[in-house]
């Protein structure tokens, strides 16, 4: 299985991107192929239906998600919602990229939890005909600390992320069999 990860942070050390990178590491440890698009490092133009041409960054986004068997979306909690850069990226995508694929949503929040962005992301996934994973990942407050090795600062957070990624991969494989 191939997994596509979209990291929706928009700064160098975005904790939602560090979370996405750690999810990538866990997926690779389970011997699955994974491609992560960091929307801060690979910025996209603003989506406009008037704009017919497809620049390389948009082509890469569309082909990566289309070629994946399952998708992970990671966002900072911004005003109780997802980031603008992630929403803009999702506007370039449609049914042909998500149809029949399991999607895991993840968030990082300044407060203790960031579930408002997660429920809003799941609404978007449903409209894209993706299949929402019933388990999601929210880190907040002190849980946003990552070591220089890219690992979460506590064993508890590490174990919680690993458990959710394992659940997601097992369910994604079952969904793909159908
Ligand atoms: C524009 C903006 C809005 C934010 N809104 C919220 C919010 O509604 N709830 C919250 O817990 N944190 C909020 N935060 C804090 C971020 O969730 C926090 O910086 C977190 O680390 C995620 O961002 P990062 O991925 O860039 O690290 C906000 C930050 C910014 C810049």
Automatic annotation (TrEMBL):
Belongs to the azoreductase type 2 family. This is NAD(P)H-dependent oxidoreductase. One of its GO terms (molecular function) is FMN binding. One of its GO terms (cellular component) is cytosol. InterPro entries: Flavoprotein-like_sf, FMN_Rdtase-like_dom, NAD(P)H-dep_reductase. Residues 1-141 form the NADPH-dependent FMN reductase-like domain. PANTHER family: CHROMATE REDUCTASE (PTHR30543), NAD(P)H-DEPENDENT FMN REDUCTASE LOT6 (PTHR30543:SF21). SUPFAM superfamilies: Flavoproteins. It holds the Pfam family FMN_red. The lineage of its organism: Bacteria, Bacillati, Bacillota, Bacilli, Bacillales. It comes from the Bacteria. It comes from Paenibacillus roseus.
């Amino acid at each position: 299985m191939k997994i596509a990860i979209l990291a929706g942070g928009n700064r160098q050390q975005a904790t939602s991107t560090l979370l996405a990178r750690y999810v990538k590491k866990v997926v690779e440890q389970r011997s699955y192929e994974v491609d992560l698009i960091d929307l801060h490092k690979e910025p996209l133009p603003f989506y406009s239906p008037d704009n017919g041409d497809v620049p390389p960054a948009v082509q890469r986004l569309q082909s990566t998600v289309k070629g994946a068997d399952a998708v992970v979306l990671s966002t900072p909690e911004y005003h109780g919602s997802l980031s603008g850069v992630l929403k803009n990226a999702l506007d370039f995508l449609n049914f042909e990229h998500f149809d029949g694929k399991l999607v895991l949503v993840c968030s990082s929040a300044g407060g203790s939890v960031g579930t408002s962005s997660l429920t809003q992301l799941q609404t978007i996934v449903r409209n894209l005909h993706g299949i929402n994973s019933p388990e999601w990942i929210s880190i907040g407050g002190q849980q946003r600390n990552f070591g220089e090795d890219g690992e979460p600062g506590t064993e508890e957070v590490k174990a919680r992320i690993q458990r959710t990624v394992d659940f997601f991969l097992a369910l994604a494989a079952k969904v793909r069999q159908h």
